[in-house]
Amino acid sequence: MPLSTKITRYATTPRKIAWISAAIGSTFFLLFITLSLTIVTHKRALLHDRLMVTMHSYMLNTLYDLKTTLTPLLPYIQQSCPQVNHELTSQAALNRHLNMILLVRNGNAYCSSATGAVSLDVNVLSPHTYQNKETDITLVPDTSAHPRGPSLVLWLKQPGKNKNGILATLNLDFMPSFLLAYRYQEIQGVALVTGDKALTTWGNQVIPATDLPSHPLRQFTVSGYPLSFFLYGDTLPVGDIYLMLLVGLLLAISVGSGCFLLLTTQYRPGRSILMAIKRGQFHVVYQPIIDAITGRTYGIEALLRWTHPIRGQISPEIFIHQAEEQNLIIPLTRHLFELVSQDAHRLRHFTPTGLRIGLNLSPHHLLAASFYSDVNIWLAAMPPAHFNYVFEITERTMVSEKNAAEIFDWIHQQNIQIAIDDFGTGHSALIYLEKFSFDYLKIDRDFIQSIGSETEATTVLDAVLNLAKQLNLKTVAEGVATREQATWLISRHVTCLQGYLFSYPLNIQKLIAYFQKEQGTLS
Ligand code: C2E
Ligand code: CA
Ligand code: CA
Q1: Which residues lie across from 200 on neighbouring strands?
Q2: Most buried among 35, 334, 429, 476, using CB within 10 Å?
Q3: CATH code linked to domain 76-233
Q4: Whole-model pTM?
Q5: What residue owns the CA closest to ligand 1's atom 43?
Q6: Could you give the 3-state DSSP secondary structure of residue 241?
Q7: CATH number of this structure's domain 268-522
Q8: 8 Å CB contact between 184 and 155
Q9: Does residue 190 contact residue 180 with C-beta atoms inside 8 Å?
Q10: Which atom of ligand 1 is nearest to the CA of 392?
Q11: Ligand 1, residues 360, 390, 450, 506: which to mutate, most atoms within 8 A of Cβ?
Q12: CA of 356 relative to ligand 2 center, distance in Å
C-alpha cells in the first residue's frame, strides 16, 4: 500500500493529522541535524587540511627566504664587527621576519645587528641550538638575553667550520600563519614546537611540549627543520551546534505546520470532497439484490466509490461520515443523482423494465429545503418509465424527526418506495415500524452474521421477520455471505437477499455483463 494511502486511512481527525504532522516534523529534524552535521564536519575537515597546506608552504617559503638573506652574510665571519656591522643592521631591517642577526665565531657571538660588537656565549643565548648542524631552529624562553619575549632562533653554520655561523632571532609577531588560523572561528590556538619546547598562541611563555593539550585537530612538521605546528580547536564548535539545532527546529516546525495544513486541506476526505466531485473522482457501483423465491435480480443498490488518483480507494464509511460532518452530503448526493442518471441511460438497454434501483439518502438531505427540488431534477433526468425507485434511509436519525411522516408521504407521492436501512442497529425501531409507512426493511449485516450461532441475535431476527410479515413489509437481508445464511433466510420467508454470496457491488460495465449473463440464462 503506498504511503499516501496509508496516511489517508489514518488522517481522518485533526488529532491524528496533528500526530502525523508531528512525526513528519520530528523525522525532518533528525534528518536535517544528521545531514548538516555530516556536511559541516566534512567541510571543516577539508578546510583544516587546506589550512595545514597553506601554513606549511608559508613556513617553507619564510625559512627559504631567511636562508637566502643570511647565507651571503656567512663570509663576514672572517671579518671584524665594525667592518660588517652596517651590513648586518640593514639586512635585519630589510627582512620583516628578522629581529636580530648575530655573527658567531668559535661558539661566541661577537657582532650583533642591533648593538654592534658583543661577546656572548651561544650556549647561554640559545642552549638547545646544535652548533655543529648545518641549520637548526629552536625556541628560547623570555630571558635576560631575550628581553623582548620568547623567540625562535635560527642557526646557519658556516660550511666546514663547527661553532662558526649565524644566529638569527625571528620575529614571531609577523608570522601571518598564526593570524591566518584565527580567521577560522573553530581554531582556538596554534602551538609551535621545537624539540621538547613549545610556544602557544594562548600563552606568552615557552613551555615543555609535554604540557600541550593532547589530541590536536591537525599537526605538521616543516620539512627539513625540527619545527612542528599543532592546531587546536573543535571541528564543530558548540555555537555552531546550537545554531544548527535552532535552524533545524525552526525548519521542522515549518515542515510540521506545512504538513498539518496540507493534510487538513488535502487529505481529510471531507475537505476535498468538493474538489473530487469537480475532478470526477467519484463513480457508482451497483450491488444486485436477489428475489428469494425466483432467484432473479430484484433490484440494485447504488453505492458511491471515491478513487483518488494518488491515495486510491477511499472507503465510503470514511467519506460519507466526513461529508455529513462538514455539510457536504447534499452536494455529494446531488452528484450521486447525476452519476446514477447518466448510468441509467446506458443501463436501461440491458435491464428488465421495473428493475428497482435503490439509493442511499442521508437524513440531513431529507430535511434540507432543497430536497424536493433535488429529487425532482433527478427524476426528470432519469430515463422515463423504466426503473422503479427506492430510497434507503437509515433508521437511526430519520424516524425520530417530527416531520418525517410528511417527508415520507411526499416521497411516496413521487412513486418512490422507502427502505429502512441497517435495521436493528438503531433504537426503538420496532415502535416506528407501525407509525410510518415503509416498504422495505433492510436487516443489518450483523444480524445475518449471527445465523447459525443460535445467539440472542438470531432470536431477535426471527421476531423481526415475523413482525415484518404481519406488517406486510418486504424484507431484504444485507450482507448474505454464505449458502447457509441464504437457506436459513429463505426458510424464514425473507423477500430479498443481498450480499457477496450473490454478487459484489459492480461497476457499470460489469453490471451490464451481469445482466447480459442473466438474460442469457433465462432465455
Ligand atoms: P449500506 O447502505 O449498508 O451498504 C451496504 C454495504 O455493505 C456496502 O458497503 C456493501 O459493499 C457492503 N456489503 C454488501 N454485501 C456484503 C457482504 O456480503 N459482506 C460484507 N462484509 N459487506 C457487504 P460500502 O459500499 O462500503 O458502503 C458502506 C456504507 O456507506 C453503506 O452501507 C452506506 O451507509 C454508505 N454509502 C455508500 N454509498 C452511499 C451513498 O451514495 N450515499 C450515502 N448516503 N451513503 C452511502
Ligand atoms: Ca443501503
Ligand atoms: Ca445497510
Answers
A1: 191
A2: 476
A3: 3.30.450.20
A4: 0.59
A5: 360
A6: helix
A7: 3.20.20.450
A8: no
A9: no
A10: 2
A11: 360
A12: 13
Q: What is the pLDDT of residues 44-92, one digit of tens each?
A: 888 888 888 888 888 888 899 999 999 999 999 989 999 999 999 999 8
352-387 burial string, b = 16+ CB within 10 Å, else e? eeebbbbbbbbbbbbebeebeebbeebeeebeeebb
pLDDT in tens, 206-223: 899 999 998 888 889 998
**How far away, in angstroms, is 301 Cα from ligand 1 center?**
9
Structural domain boundaries in the chain: 76-233, 268-522
In terms of phi and psi (left: phi > 0; alpha: psi -120 to 50; beta: otherwise), the region of 160 is left
Q: Which protein residues are within 6 Å of ligand 1, measured from CB?
A: 287, 303-304, 316-317, 320, 336, 360-362, 392, 421-422, 445, 478-481, 499-500, 505
Residue matched to cell numbers 463513480: 283
Testing ligand 1's pocket by substitution, the residue of 320, 324, 333, 496 carrying the most ligand atoms inside 8 A of its CB is 320
pLDDT at 282: 97
pLDDT of residue 1: 47
Q: How many angstroms separate the alpha carbon of residue 83 from the centre of ligand 1?
A: 116
Report the nearest atom of ligand 1 relative to the CA of 285.
25
Determine the Cα angle at 190 with ends 187 and 194, to 5°.
160
